[in-house]
Specification:
Layout lengths: L26 H14 L3 H8 L5 H13 L17 H13 L1 E2 L2 E2 L1 H6 L8 H12 L9 H14 L3 H8 L3 H12 L10 H13 L4 H7 L5 H10 L14 H14 L3 H8 L4 H12 L1
Antiparallel strand pairs: 1-2
Helix pairs in contact: 1-2, 1-3, 4-6, 8-9, 13-14, 14-15
Length: about 290
C-alpha cells in the first residue's frame, strides 16, 4: 500500500515563529524584569510582548515572585504530584482572600505576587479556596439568608455569580431559590380553599394548560400549582388525606422493596396516595 508523503513545499513554514523556551534566566533578564515591573506594574501582557517575547506571562510572574522571596517557584500544575497543603498555608490563604476581596471578587494574581505561596500557582490558589476551604453551602435557607438575598438583588441586580461569592452558595441554587420563593409577586404559604377549588375545577377545563391556569391563581408559582395539582388530596379526590391504614402501609413497604425510591411507582401501587405522600411517609419511617 502506497502512502503519499507531504512535499517540503506542503509543510508549514516555521521560520520566524518565536518559540517559548525554558532556558535559565540571565542576570540581565532578572534585572530587566524587576525594572519593568516597577515601571509597568501588573501589565504583564505589555512586559511579555515588549521585553520577554520568548517567555510566558506565567513564567514572568513566577520568576518575579521567586526574586522577591528568594525561593524558587514550583508551578504545581507541572509537577507529577502536587505537594500537600499545610494548615498554615490554608490559614494564610483564607486571610489573603479576605484582604484581596474587591467588589465581590478575589484578586488571585495579587495574592500570588505577594510571595506568600511560592510553590502554588494562581489557579491552585483559587481551586484550593473554592473547592476545599469554602465548600458551597447547601440545604435549607434561613430567614436571615432570605433577607440578605433580597437586599443583594436590590443592590447588585441579578448577578448570581457575584452574589454567590458573598452567600457562599452555588449560583444556580441562589437563582432558583430567588425565582421560586423571593421574587416580587410570589405568594408562598398555605393555599386557601378557594385556590384549591379553582385548581380542581379549572385544570380539567384547560386540559392542563398551565399558563392559563396560573392566570386564575395569581401570585402562585407554576411549580407550586403543579405540585398541588398532582399531589394534593383536595384536588385529586382519589387520594386519601387522612391517616394511613394498615393495607396502605403494607402495600407501600412491599412495593418499596421492589422499586426503591421510585415514588411514582409506589403511588400507582398504593392507588390512594400521591407520590409526595409516599415520599413523606418513607421520610418519617427512616427518620
Amino acid at each position: 500500500m502506497y502512502i503519499s508523503r507531504a512535499q517540503p513545499s506542503d509543510r508549514p513554514n516555521l521560520i520566524g515563529i518565536k518559540r517559548r523556551h525554558h532556558q535559565n534566566w540571565t542576570s540581565e533578564e532578572k534585572q530587566m524584569l524587576i525594572e519593568c515591573q516597577k515601571k509597568y506594574g501588573s501589565n504583564w501582557k505589555l512586559i511579555s510582548q515588549k521585553y520577554f517575547q520568548s517567555r510566558t506571562i506565567q513564567a514572568l510572574q513566577c520568576k518575579l515572585c521567586s526574586l522577591k522571596t528568594g525561593e524558587s517557584i514550583i508551578d504545581d500544575r507541572l509537577t507529577k504530584k502536587a505537594q500537600k497543603w499545610t494548615l498554615k498555608e490554608d490559614e494564610e490563604l483564607q486571610l489573603a482572600a479576605k484582604k484581596y476581596l474587591i467588589h465581590g471578587k478575589i484578586n488571585w494574581k495579587s495574592i500570588f505576587l505577594t510571595g506568600c505561596f511560592p510553590k502554588r500557582s494562581v489557579k491552585s490558589l483559587a481551586n484550593r479556596y473554592h473547592d476545599v476551604l469554602t465548600k458551597p453551602k447547601r440545604g435549607p435557607w434561613s430567614r436571615n439568608e432570605d433577607e440578605q438575598l433580597r437586599n443583594l438583588v436590590q443592590a447588585h441586580g441579578k448577578k448570581w455569580t457575584k452574589i454567590s461569592h458573598i452567600l457562599q452558595r452555588p449560583s444556580a441554587l441562589i437563582r432558583d431559590h430567588y425565582i421560586r420563593y423571593l421574587a416580587p409577586g410570589i405568594k408562598i404559604g398555605d393555599w386557601t380553599p378557594e385556590e384549591f377549588k379553582i385548581l380542581a375545577e379549572e385544570a380539567g377545563k384547560f386540559n392542563e394548560n398551565w399558563d392559563e391556569i396560573q392566570e386564575l391563581i395569581p401570585g402562585r408559582p407554576l411549580w407550586n400549582i403543579k405540585n398541588n395539582y398532582y399531589n394534593s388530596p383536595k384536588v385529586q379526590r382519589k387520594f386519601n388525606g387522612g391517616k394511613w391504614n394498615d393495607i396502605e402501609i403494607h402495600t407501600l413497604n412491599e412495593t418499596f422493596e421492589k422499586f426503591g425510591r421510585n415514588f411514582q411507582k409506589l403511588s400507582e401501587a398504593v392507588t390512594t396516595r400521591s407520590p409526595k405522600q409516599c415520599w413523606q411517609r418513607m421520610q418519617k419511617k427512616t427518620s
